[in-house]
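Tokens as discussed.
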């Protein structure tokens, strides 16, 4: 979801040729990253324990692996 929102904001920055919107996108991505690292992941680790650790080891955080 975070990447999708960032792509929409990036599209708006491109469409309107706006550095202000692009800077907003960077700030949004930084905020989302910090939220995920410092809140979401620790909360999920507490809730699901070892099962979440295995999931995290097999799934990248932001950019999915492309299998051809």
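Sequence:
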């Amino acid at each position: 979801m975070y990447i999708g929102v960032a792509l929409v904001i990036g599209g708006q920055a491109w469409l309107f040729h706006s550095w202000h919107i692009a800077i907003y996108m960077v700030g949004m991505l930084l905020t989302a990253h910090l939220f995920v690292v410092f809140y979401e992941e620790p909360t999920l680790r507490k809730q699901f324990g070892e099962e979440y650790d295995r999931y995290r080891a097999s799934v990248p955080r932001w950019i999915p692996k492309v299998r051809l």
